[in-house]
Design brief:
The complex is a heterotrimer of chains A (375), B (296) and C (272). By secondary structure, chain A is α+β, with helices and mostly antiparallel strands. Chain A folds into 2 domains: 8-243, 3-Layer(aba) Sandwich (Rossmann fold), CATH 3.40.50.300; 250-373, Beta Barrel (OB fold (Dihydrolipoamide Acetyltransferase, E2P)). Helix content of chain A is 22%, strand content 33%. Chain A is built from 8 helices and 20 strands. In chain A, the strands form 4 sheets. In chain A, strands 6-7-8-3-9-10 form a 6-stranded mixed beta sheet, with helices on both faces. Chain A has a 5-stranded antiparallel beta sheet with strand order 13-12-11-14-20. Chain A has a 5-stranded antiparallel beta sheet with strand order 15-19-16-17-18, with no helix packed on it. The radius of gyration of chain B is 24 Å and the shape is globular. With 296 residues, chain B is mainly α. Chain B has helices at 2-29, 49-59, 63-70, 72-105, 111-123, 126-131, 134-137, 142-150, 163-188, 191-199, 204-215, 217-232, 236-240, 249-258, 263-295; strands at 32-33, 40-41. The longest helix of chain B is centred in the N-terminal third of the chain and has 34 residues, at 72-105. In chain B, 76% of the residues lie in helices and 1% in strands. Chain B is built from 15 helices and 2 strands. Chain C has 272 residues and is mostly helical. In chain C, 78% of the residues lie in helices and 0% in strands. Chain C contains 11 helices and no strands. Chain C has helices spanning 6-29, 46-52, 55-88, 95-107, 110-123, 130-154, 158-166, 171-200, 203-208, 216-224, 230-271. The longest helix of chain C has 42 residues, at 230-271. Classes of the chains: A alpha+beta (375), B mainly alpha (296), C mainly alpha (272). Chains in contact: A-C, B-C.
């Protein structure tokens, strides 16, 4: 398929749908959002990811109109939203608890927002039927929320918030109440619906896997600030800080002093009397500056002997093995006491596994296997 | 705008029909008795302007409160109300606790029914429930007939129109108020705590004393206040079941007002009764507050 | 593990016997042919007949009913508003006084409430009658209503209201279409509680009623002061039966609804 990659954030001509301009939100003494600026573009699936209390829900509630910024501006389609009440915004929200009206049927829940628009009757019926079909709920139209399962309730909430064809749909932990298997299925369904309807989605979640799966861009938040905004792949492969590297997936962090060896090459001296690790990076570090290498466990190979020509290799002893079926994670203690996690695919059967506890093994990775971080 | 309307309607209603009337009571308590109607002076006459207001305040005094301390009827009935309320609260606890305990121990499927049985009397007329004891406790009533029949007594007992009848009346009518909070506390009690206590060497009785009772303390306190506070100002029970010798302050207030038509003294009695209630009400509020904080 | 012992069974038996025996005796003896209330002289319904031909009682019952319906309806409106203010309005000037005035009448002795209202009515020159009783009953029962309704509102999921706003409702429409239907059971029980309180009240009504309006409790009280009467037994039986039928059927209905809901929820989980 010859398709242009969807990346309006790289296009200087693109007009953002949502603009946060130096937004600060305080609750009494507590600063929930700290001088934050961010653009979100039309048709994006934008994920706000972070631990609870990082301010992601506050950002969403400000978009919906339930909270007002203490300072700064929020623009939607170029219009300043200050003082616009929630019922007059072309924004709809899917609530974490779904907030389905328990006294109304599925049909009436979906029609609720349309009735407020004084839509002609036949048009309204057609729209509700469309939504029911889109979310595969036609069979359940006459049921009350307590008469359907959790997954169906989630779809009703989605249909209800999409019915008014909002410019922007906000999803607050939309899959949090579902079990793991259903959650995975629903993630793809969400992406599918987002693509079909062409609506801009902003999702709030604390589940990094979910954010990585569904989003076109992920914003990792901490203490009211956005730490990094990038595509899922970039967030994972090129985190800009130890916080992001650590928050997304599993990672080994090794601290050391930087020494420049070439235009983009650095040596990181991590322990007295051991060879420094070699790495390539685009960031610039001062001589002797404190730096970190972040290496994902699956980027580290485990071998019984020192691999020929490896750029980074270190000997250690296996202290723990976590067998996860498809892969095993080896916890290897290297000189200095640091424990490094390395992951290997289990291509052989269990009985013939190569390593066991207390084995001496070699860990190795390439020049670009780890990311160099300054903070 | 809408918010203001929402707040002000119930607010103004309560100000006009709760707070203002109470201030009037306070004012009349500080006034003198008069024979004309309304039977008290001074009355606030705003047509005299500032002079009228000054004259009004000048004539207020604590005479009625002094009178309450001088006439032994009043302080005797305050004391007697306190005593009757305290003793009947204790009796209600003694009757109510085993019932609440039995309900908490009962099989799950019985509980809604038991609960309903406790609440049902609460919905039936208070007056009728008090009245129903008149036929039982009178000299030729069912209790005396029964006791005579069993041969326990040879002469009918005089129960109606005594303090005993008042105790029975209070215990009977306020029993649900005692049972419900204790039951609520006992129901939350984790049965494995008792097993743990027994496992650690307690006898069942000792486990009850050392685990169940302390953990239901909040329910006991709440129930006791719910009985004690209304019992203190009770009027219907002493006037139907008590005799002329049963002094209770609610009854005194009623008679002062309706029979003696001494409004200032009746108002003073009301003010003192309220002062008497403030301490238990504050204690009760504290207990509730503590419970709410514990739940969070 | 809970153990239901003989001790528990005995205390329940005696406890409930104590609670119900007086009423049972009252009901049985309302069918007694004799005027002597403690001597059984055969079955008869003549006291019911006499009660129904006693115009004074019927008048009082009619007054009581009107007062009850009017005051509990007013109290429900005011109490629901007050509950909403307490739970949702946030901070405002005089909030402490407001919540104090909501809770104080619950612990205020009736004699004081009655006395103070009477003094107010006389002070502003309002003639005592049905109207003043309605005002008095509304005032104290609205506090009970607001306690019942606010306890429901506290557990109410606020995101339902937010969802309604999000879907285009004004705050008032959101209340009418979402909040009110959901808290309706609490509002109805508030009304019933207010109605029962009004029907029951002797003390406050005695203070605030004028010679033109006598309520049933006032009538009963003046009759039983003189001693036990079979007519009052008959009246009590009627009142107890109405309440018992009401409470029992209400609890059966709500239990059925709970069971139905549970079954449907389980069916929904299974079918998914």
């Amino acid at each position: 398929m010859a398709q242009t990659v969807f990346a309006p954030w790289n296009d200087p001509q693109a007009k953002p749908l949502i603009q946060f301009k130096n937004v600060t939100k305080r609750f009494g003494d507590f600063t929930a959002i700290d001088n934050l600026s961010q653009d979100i573009y039309e048709r994006e699936f934008f994920a706000l990811l972070g631990p609870s209390g990082c301010g992601k829900t506050t950002m969403m509630r400000m978009l919906a109109g339930f909270e007002n910024p203490t300072e700064g501006q929020i623009l939607i389609a170029g219009q300043d939203m200050a003082g616009v009440p929630p019922n007059e915004r072309a924004v709809n929200m899917m609530f974490q608890s779904y907030a389905l009206f328990p006294h109304l049927t599925v049909w009436d829940n979906i029609a609720f927002g349309l009735k407020r628009m004084n839509m002609p009757k036949d048009q309204l019926n057609a729209r509700v039927e469309d939504m029911l079909r889109l979310t595969r709920l036609t069979k359940f139209a006459k049921r009350k929320p307590h008469q359907i399962s959790g997954g169906q309730r989630q779809r009703v909430a989605l249909a209800r918030s999409l019915a008014r064809a909002p410019k922007l749909l906000l999803l607050d932990e939309p899959l949090g109440a579902l079990d793991k298997k259903l959650r995975e299925e629903t993630q793809f369904e969400l992406m599918d619906i987002q693509e079909k309807t062409g609506t801009t989605f902003v999702i709030v979640t604390h589940d990094q896997e979910e954010a990585m799966t569904v989003a076109s861009r992920v914003a990792v938040m901490d203490e009211g600030r956005i730490m990094q905004v990038a595509t899922p792949a970039n967030i994972y492969e090129e985190p800009n800080s130890v916080y992001v590297a650590d928050f997304i997936g599993d990672v080994n962090i090794i601290q050391g002093k930087a020494h420049k060896t070439s235009a983009d090459g650095y040596d990181i001296a991590w322990a007295e009397g051991h060879e420094p690790f070699h790495a390539k990076t685009s960031i610039q570090l001062d001589e002797g500056q404190n730096a970190f290498i972040a290496i994902r466990p699956e980027k580290i190979s485990v071998s019984p002997d020192k691999p020929e020509g490896a750029v980074n290799a270190i000997k250690g002893q296996i202290v723990d093995i976590a067998y996860l079926g498809n892969v095993s994670t080896y916890h290897v203690r290297i000189p200095g006491g640091l424990v490094i996690k390395a992951q290997a695919a289990n291509t052989r059967r269990l009985s013939r596994r190569a390593f066991t506890w207390e084995d001496e093994v070699w860990l190795s990775w390439t020049l670009t296997g780890g990311s160099v971080l300054s903070e | 705008m809408r918010r203001l309307f929402l707040i002000s309607v119930p607010y103004v209603w309560l100000l006009a029909l709760f707070l203002v009337p109470f201030l009037i009571v306070l004012k009349i308590a500080l006034s003198d008795t008069a024979l004309a109607i309304p039977p008290y002076i001074p009355t606030l006459d705003l047509s005299d302007g500032w002079e009228g207001i000054k004259a009004f305040f000048a004539e207020l005094d604590f005479e009625n409160f002094v009178f309450l301390t001088e006439d032994s009827l009043y302080w005797k009935s305050y004391l007697s109300s306190l005593q009757i309320a305290a003793i009947s609260t204790l009796l209600t606890l003694l009757v109510g606790y085993p019932v609440a305990y039995g309900m908490a121990m009962a099989p799950d499927e019985w509980r809604p029914t038991l609960m309903m049985l406790v609440i049902l009397p609460f919905w039936t007329s208070f007056l009728i429930r008090v009245y129903s004891w008149m036929g039982i406790l009178s000299q030729e009533g069912f209790l005396n007939q029964f006791l005579l029949w069993t041969g326990l007594i040879s002469e009918p007992l005089m129960i109606l129109n005594t303090k005993t009848a008042v105790y029975i009346g209070i215990v009977y009518t306020y029993l649900p108020f005692m049972i419900l909070p204790i039951y609520a506390a006992l129901e939350k009690l984790d049965g494995s705590l008792l097993e743990a206590a027994e496992d650690l060497g307690c006898s069942r009785l000792k486990a009850f004393w050392l685990v169940t009772i302390p953990l239901s303390k909040s329910g006991i306190i709440a129930g006791s206040f719910l009985v004690f506070i209304p019992a203190l100002g009770e009027f219907v029970i002493p006037s139907l079941l008590g005799g002329s010798g049963t002094l209770m302050i609610g009854k005194v207030l009623w008679e002062e007002f309706f029979s003696n038509r001494d409004w200032p003294v009746a108002s003073a009695v009301a003010v003192v009764l309220l002062l008497l209630l403030i301490i238990p009400i504050i204690l009760f509020q504290r207990n509730e507050q503590k419970e709410r904080e514990k739940d969070q | 593990m809970r153990r239901f012992t003989w001790f528990n069974a005995t205390s329940l038996t005696f406890g409930f016997a104590f609670l119900y025996m007086p009423m049972v005796i009252l009901i049985i003896y309302s069918f007694n042919a004799s005027k002597l209330v403690t001597v059984w002289a055969g079955f008869s319904t003549k006291w019911y007949g006499e009660l129904l031909s006693n115009q004074a009682f019927l008048d009082a019952a009619w007054v009581t009913l009107r007062v009850g319906v009017a005051s509990s309806t007013l109290a429900t409106v005011l109490g629901t508003m007050a509950a909403y203010v307490l739970v949702r309005a946030g901070r405002f000037h005089g909030r402490t006084l407001f919540s104090g005035m909501i809770y104080a009448p619950l612990v205020m002795p009736e004699v004081i409430t009655g006395l103070s209202l009477l003094l107010l009515f006389i002070g502003i020159g309002l003639d005592r009658g049905i109207f003043t009783i309605i005002l008095a009953h509304t005032t104290f029962s609205m506090c009970y209503v607001s306690v019942v309704v606010s306890s429901r509102l506290v557990s109410f999921d606020k995101s339902l209201e937010e969802a309604a706003l999000d879907l285009g409702c004004s705050p008032f429409t959101a209340f009418r279409l979402v909040t009110l239907p959901i808290i309706a059971p609490a509002v109805v029980s508030g009304w019933l509680l207010a109605f029962t309180l009004s029907l029951d009240d002797l003390v406050i009504a005695s203070f605030t009623a004028g010679p033109s309006a006598t309520t049933l409790p006032i009538k009963i009280f003046s009759a039983v002061r003189l001693g036990v009467s079979p007519e009052i037994n008959a009246l009590s039986t009627i009142m107890i039966s109405i309440v018992a039928v009401g409470v029992i059927s209400a609890s059966i209905i709500s239990k059925r609804a709970a069971i139905k809901q549970q079954q449907e929820e389980m069916a929904a989980v299974r079918s998914s």
